[in-house]
Write a sequence for this structure.
């Protein structure tokens, strides 16, 4: 499988684009004409620069408004094509994309267009060049790959072939199985893009909102299954028009792009087992079984403060690491409870993370079926492995880099499951009773909005997870975009919250903690009222919710006044849908905006109480310490 990406897909000048594309491991690059025209080197210099990066030019594009023109426009179109052929030969590429005509002057007719392409093919053949025809979804007469293929078929010239683009087919809802009857050797290149489902004009949708396969909502896997069935063996190339990507990191977008292609073809391989597909060997996605631990980096003073806060929630220090300044706090059953690690080491990644972010949850331990297979898949998809020197008697726990430079560790049912007994010394367990917290319900990671698609693709390509529809969380300072990633049966729930400005609570947290990281942890209980009362006796301070919220809540849901009174007394928020109920309350914020949440799910409620977010955020903003006061 040869991978390629159009230069228009990422930001930077041509030199920056090519460096990022090569570093990400692509085999080739599509040269978008505007990128070439803005560059100050000759075509020959550009071609050499590309080859020096170990890349080939898979395509030169686009050539617009060619077929079906009356004279004298037709003659001028052929003259323009000859000039582009000159340029291609200097660059060192043999394939040009012609997109379907959108000019008001264009005349319809399959045979007229086929005759034009036959003549263009004869001219290209004299130079050893090829021409691919692509149906734009908004083409004046040709906007369907089936019609484009019929033109290519009637042109009946070996130098004229079809170019397929997933967006143009899927955006118009064209049956992808119609691709299966096209001979694979007549498809010259396949361009790929995904996109979120949006009700808008197709041209604007295409020019501003495309994204990588797996980041959007279009059935790109079905499209590629149909392409694979033709026997097509040429390059798979990304053509992404996205305003967000144009302002993002070229390196990150390029890595995402190659990850998306490898992941896509792995999905196609499993969906079409009878078809041979060349794709890097890697294990299948591994099922997630739960969250094994959350690890905080802190200094001694702030670790003490964090420990005091955990104590008010019923956690107790249960074990100390044999070789490191690391303490395990636990609540719930020994098998499957909640494990919180506080790391106060003065060297290593935890210490570095503390210096950069302050006290933060820099590492997550996830229980999976097979830890080694998970990391092997992650590495095949371009994830950065993480290894840290470990002392005698310590386990080498498989790990990769995660959000904000943090770490994701993987624990499976083998020796790794014994990490607490192998690496830790158990402390006397105080007989004070816990608060009824049973497990980690979800982990909320806050990031700049521009990073969200990267991490959606990261999690869904590596782990057996799915993404839920994106929702807008209303903050008095602006919108925060929230995307949920879930494993099977809710064993892992991640809420990715993208901040667009620092006026929002999420944006403030990013600014004050210097980068993306975990902003809050939600713990599950089976009886939220009993938990709230127990935590109150332990000294827990809950986030105070406006009394006005409860007046509206009673009217909106028709709650019994007695229930409303209990909710108000515990500062507990409430939501309900047709499947069940969701009750939640929050801690006050710690350090620069980190907080805890306690939740109870009743029935089959699958949400996260998004309707309550504006009231929770308003309460948190009221409670934020004034600037200049010392950290708690």
């Amino acid at each position: 499988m040869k991978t390629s990406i159009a230069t228009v897909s990422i930001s930077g000048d041509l030199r920056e684009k090519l460096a990022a594309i090569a570093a990400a491991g692509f085999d080739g690059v599509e040269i978008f004409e505007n990128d070439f025209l803005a560059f100050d080197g000759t075509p020959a210099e550009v071609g050499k620069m590309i080859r020096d990066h170990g890349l080939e030019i898979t395509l030169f594009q686009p050539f617009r408004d060619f077929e079906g023109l009356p004279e004298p426009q037709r003659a001028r179109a052929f003259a323009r094509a000859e000039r582009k052929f000159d340029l291609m030969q200097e660059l060192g590429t043999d394939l040009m994309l012609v997109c379907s005509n959108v000019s008001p002057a264009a005349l319809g007719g399959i045979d007229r267009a086929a005759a034009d392409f036959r003549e263009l093919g004869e001219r290209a053949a004299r130079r050893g060049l090829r021409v691919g025809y692509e149906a734009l979804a908004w083409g004046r007469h040709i906007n369907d790959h089936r019609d484009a293929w019929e033109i290519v078929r009637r042109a009946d010239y070996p130098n004229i072939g079809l170019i397929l683009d997933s967006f143009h087919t899927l955006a118009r809802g064209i049956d992808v199985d119609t691709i299966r009857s096209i001979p694979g050797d007549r498809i010259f290149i396949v361009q790929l893009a995904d996109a979120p489902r949006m009700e808008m004009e197709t041209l604007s949708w295409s020019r501003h909102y495309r994204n990588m396969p797996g980041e959007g909502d279009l059935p790109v896997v079905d499209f590629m299954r149909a392409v694979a069935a033709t026997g097509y063996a040429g390059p798979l190339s990304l053509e992404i028009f996205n305003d967000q990507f144009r302002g993002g990191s070229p390196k990150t977008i390029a890595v995402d792009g190659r990850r998306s292609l490898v992941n896509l073809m792995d999905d196609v391989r499993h969906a079409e087992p009878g078809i041979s597909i060349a794709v890097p060997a890697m294990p299948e996605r591994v099922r997630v079984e739960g969250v094994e631990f959350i690890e905080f980096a802190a200094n001694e003073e702030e670790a003490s403060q964090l420990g005091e806060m955990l104590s008010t929630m019923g956690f107790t220090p249960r074990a100390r690491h044999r070789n490191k300044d690391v303490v395990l706090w636990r609540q719930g059953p020994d098998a499957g409870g909640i494990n919180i690690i506080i790391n106060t080491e003065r060297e290593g990644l935890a210490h570095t993370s503390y210096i950069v972010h302050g006290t933060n949850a820099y590492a997550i331990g996830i229980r999976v079926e097979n830890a080694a297979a998970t990391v092997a898949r992650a590495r095949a998809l371009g994830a950065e492995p993480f290894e840290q020197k470990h002392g005698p008697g310590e386990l080498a726990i498989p790990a990769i880099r995660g959000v904000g430079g943090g770490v994701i560790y993987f624990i499976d049912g083998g020796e790794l499951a014994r990490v607490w007994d192998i690496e830790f010394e158990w402390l006397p367990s105080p007989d004070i009773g816990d608060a009824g917290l049973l497990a980690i319900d979800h982990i909320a990671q806050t990031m700049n909005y521009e990073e969200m698609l990267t991490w959606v693709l990261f999690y869904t390509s590596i782990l057996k997870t799915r993404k839920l529809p994106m929702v807008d969380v209303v903050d008095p300072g602006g919108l925060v975009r929230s995307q949920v990633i879930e494993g099977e049966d809710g064993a892992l729930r991640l809420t990715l919250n993208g901040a667009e400005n620092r006026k929002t609570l999420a944006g403030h947290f990013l600014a004050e903690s210097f980068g993306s990281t975990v902003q809050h942890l939600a713990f599950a209980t089976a009886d939220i009222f009993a938990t709230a009362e127990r935590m109150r006796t332990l000294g827990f301070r809950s986030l105070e919710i406006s009394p006005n919220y409860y007046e509206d809540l009673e009217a909106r849901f028709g709650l019994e006044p007695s229930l409303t009174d209990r909710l108000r007394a515990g500062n507990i928020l409430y939501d309900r849908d047709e499947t069940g109920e969701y009750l939640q309350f929050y801690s006050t914020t710690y350090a620069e905006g980190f907080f805890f949440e306690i939740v109870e799910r009743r029935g089959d409620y699958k949400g996260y109480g998004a309707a309550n977010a504006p009231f929770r955020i308003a309460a948190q903003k009221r409670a934020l310490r004034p600037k200049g006061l010392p950290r708690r």
